[in-house]
Amino acid sequence: MPNKLEIGTQEEGEDCDYVVCIRFTGLLALPGNLIGTCCKCGYMIQYRPHAPKTPAKICLECAVPEMDDSFGEHDLKVMITPKTAAEVAAYLQKKKAN
Ligand SMILES: [Zn+2]
User: Fold this and answer.
1) Predicted confidence band at 34 (pLDDT cuts at 50, 70, 90)?
2) How many domains does the chain contain in total?
3) pLDDT per position as a tens digit, 46-82
4) Residue 12 Cα to ligand 1 middle (Å)
5) For all residues of the chain together, what is the average pLDDT?
6) What's the 15 CA to ligand 1 centre distance in angstroms?
7) How far from 9 is each of 12, 27, 83, CA to CA, in Å?
8) φ/ψ bin of 28: left (φ > 0), alpha (ψ from -120 to 50), beta (otherwise)
9) SS3 for 91?
């Protein structure tokens, strides 16, 4: 099964559909993170200052079902940078541990 969650460069990230961000729950995951809102649910999200600016920002919780629906049907392209991927992995691990 092809996986379209791609990890690519900053430049490639600019023409993606979404940038996946983690939710902001009152604590920055990393110092220097910027705060925005999810394009779907409006929840506050945090992202790295180097995140691509062009694509809509979406929280992880919205992104997962969106990706499930869209893979195969549409040519949805979701991009996370290697840095974000590491952060998301750490976030999920922490979430699982709790
Ligand atoms: Zn959302």
Assistant:
1) very high
2) 1
3) 988 888 888 899 998 888 777 666 555 555 566 566 6
4) 23
5) 76
6) 20
7) 5, 27, 10
8) beta
9) helix
* Contact (Cβ atoms closer than 8 angstroms) between residue 53 and residue 33: no
User: 45: domain range?
Assistant: 5-97
How far is ligand 1, taken at its centre, from the CA of residue 63, in Å?
7
pTM of full prediction above 0.70: no
List, in order, residues 6 or more apart from 79 with CB less than 8 Å away. Answer: 6, 7, 8, 12, 13, 16, 18, 19, 52, 55
Q: Are 21 and 51 in contact (CB under 8 A)?
A: yes
97 Cα: distance to centroid of ligand 1 (angstroms): 22
Distance CA 91, CA 97 (A): 10
